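Colleagues,

Please find the record for the two-part complex below.
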Amino acid sequence: MMVDMTAVYVLWLREMKRFMRAKSRIVGALAMPLFFLVFLGLGFNRMTVPGMTRDVSYIRFLMPGIIGMGLLFSSTFGGLSVLWDREFGFLKEIMVAPVSHLSIVIGRIAGGTTTGLIQGIMILGISFILGFKILSPAALFLSLIMMVLIATTFLGLGLIFASKLKDMQGFSIIMNFVIFPLFFLSGALYPLENFPFWLKYLSCLDPLTFGVDGLRGLLLGASTYPVVLNFGLMIFFSSVMLFLGAYFFEKSESV
Amino acid sequence: MDAIRVENLTRQFNGFTAVDRISFTVQTGELFGLLGPNGAGKTTTINMLATLLKPTSGFAEVGGFDVARHKDAVRRSIGIVFQEPALDTRLTGKENLEFHAMMYGLPREERKKRLTEVLELVELEEKANVLVEKYSGGMKRRLEIARGLIHWPKVLFLDEPTLGLDAQTRRRIWDYIKKLNKDRGVTIILTTHYMEEADYLCDRVAIIDFGKFVALGTPSGLKDVLRGDVVSLELEGETAALLGQLKKLDWVKSIKSHDGLLSLTMEKGERRIPELITAAQKSGVSVACVHLRKPSLEDVFLHFTGRMIRKEQAGQGERLRGGMPGSGRRR
């Protein structure tokens, strides 16, 4: 099976055009993370965060978690957007083209990752306005890579669900029983140190745990697990999810 | 060379046979129609020929390539306009065409040229940079036809190309289809449940019902089967005696009774109506209404299936619920 770079590019381009045109989508993708960041951050700001050094205020602790949250939601939805294409018929136009399914999957992932990254950078930009400072350019660069890994992981997850579901009916179930549990388990909002041990073990199955922790290590200089471990696990998770996403997409029938 | 060769093509969905061992060939340059009610298996057939569905059994070749084994080669040689719009409404018309041209690997220069050409063909040059969500149904359909042509397909599939369009737009679409086929020599397969569409456009028509071909031929050839005009009588009263009488008349070629209507075929129908009315009166039946029709494909459908295709449309719901397990699936 060959990867057709033109097909990947044109699918990516389509995603970019759609993203740039949907102003409401950009606002929507930013609004919720921002509300979380501002209200939770300011509301709990005086609290000290267990497991973090004294100089890490809650709003600083929260910021990488909110980037992770934004990526979790937008990427899973990005993967699920195959369902919208199926609903609106456009999936057939894509599927009947003489390009491999792998190219289609890669094109989608590329598009979704780029929009996720744009969103992450915007949240990062806003936190600079709120007074956040980066540790080093290298750390910033690595945190962007971490964002890409988080995005691809959940794009893959979204693709798996999109290939298994036939319409949008399962959407709220996925929202309530997959996305929210992943979000709360990850420690994006609070340190996992407070969890009872069984919840802590459970959180180790959640890729977002390591994604957010890695971002904390890179952006704050403080994390639960070593940054290298976080990277290794995220590379593992994203590869597995991508593989499974592509596999299920390949097997699903398009009409 | 045949553009399409199909042998015993079959597709089943959860035990329900949507397409049942159909066989046919379509010659290069031909305009071939699949005519039948909704749910007859037309779209399933098209989807198999376009490599979107795997045949359960049987064999099909498009442009000389096996649809099961050489998907990419088949895909490269076909264009398709689906029954429901398959456009990205958030993109402009031109962007939709560009997307397609790039997916099919047209080089940059040729892409530009082709886009202008096909937009001109369907007269959408002025709307090219408008978002598709602002397009009317007819414009969307024309854009899709244009898109299906960009990559010079050898075979163009049109699945219900005028479904849901008003009469005027339908005429225009018909003209495009004719033009494509006659002037440019594109082989076209279209599905429809509109009789007059099949009659007006197609060189040959296959009538399909419950997944099977019931007849295949040129529209005029199929109508010749009926040997004459159709006279329908709406009768009131006991019709058995009249039926017996009519059966004895040698100029009555066939008699079909359905929904209180009597359909008779004969030559020179307009000259026979008075005789028919007299015969009815003699056997104590009153004639409420007489209708003379030169034969249409509708009558051909009636002749082969014993049902009217239009009745089928109305009774669709029941048929889907009763006869198709797992029919919630879209196909």
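The interface with chain A takes residues 47, 50-54, 72-73, 75-76, 78, 80, 82, 84-91, 95, 98-100, 102-105, 147, 329-331 of chain B (CB under 8 Å).

Comments are welcome before we finalize the supplementary table.
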